[in-house]
């Protein structure tokens, strides 16, 4: 059996680096301002809950499993997230700018390589299937005639 290429590991590492590039600028700002955001227990609980919901929505979106809900559900989600993340909404411009920087870094540094690696994986799968079919056909032909 042929040795599997390290394309899957490469794809995993590229996607992990992409996620880090997306989250790093925002995480830095949140860490720098943590004293302002997490001084009260109630605010910390609300922010943690809101962050967990946001991460879950982000992961679902990245996996392509997030469908756009009805307007009532969407607006309800916005209201709940606004209430949960109330402490950081004062810095919305700064935080959204950090998200923009993260998305730009991801788009420039990682998306092309992730796409290229996925294409290589698809090509390798096709080549493997073709090689196996050719080998099976040659074995079948050789077994019947005794010729090479």
Task: Provide the fold topology.
Blueprint: H1 7-32, H2 34-37, H3 41-62, H4 71-84, H5 92-109, H6 111-145
Helix pairs in contact: 1-5, 1-6, 3-4
Quick structural summary:
The chain has 148 residues and is an all-alpha fold. The protein has helices spanning 7-32, 34-37, 41-62, 71-84, 92-109, 111-145.
Describe the structure.
By secondary structure, the protein is an all-alpha fold. The protein has two domains: 9-109, no CATH class; 111-143. The protein has six helices and no strands. The protein has helices spanning 7-32, 34-37, 41-62, 71-84, 92-109, 111-145. The longest helix has 35 residues, at 111-145. The chain is elongated and about 80 Å long.
Which short descriptors sum up this protein?
mainly alpha, 2 domains, 148 residues, 6 helices
User: What structural category arises from helix and sheet content?
Assistant: mainly alpha
Low-confidence stretches: none
Number of domains: 2
What is the string of helix and strand elements? HHHHHH
Total beta-strand segments:
0
Bin the strand percentage. Answer: under 5%
Average pLDDT, to the nearest integer? Answer: 81
Assembly form of the protein? single chain
Number of helices: 6
- In which range does the helix fraction lie? over 70%
Molecular shape: elongated
Rg measurement, Å = 24 Å
Euclidean distance between termini CA atoms: 22 Å
Main sheet properties: none
